[in-house]
Amino acid sequence: MKITDVKVFRMATPVHKTAGTNWLFVRIDTDTGISGWGEGSLQYKDAALEAEILDFAKFLEGKDPLRIDWIWTSLYRRVT
Predict the structure, then answer these.
(1) Which of 12-26, 31-45, 64-78 has the highest mean pLDDT?
(2) What is the domain extent for residue 70?
């Protein structure tokens, strides 16, 4: 199984309802048709978070999604 695509969906929420937090939802697709979802927020820095996720996507494509620890460690080392 290999990761084939990473998509980011930015969801803006009204300021009066959530103190301005915008949410990002991420879908990771594989060549077997399995998709996984994740979510996160970073107050007003959603555009920066989206850009970082899309940069990570370049690394993730073609990788085995079952190698979770290896992927996490590799991404962590890229930003530290």
Answers:
(1) 64-78
(2) 3-79
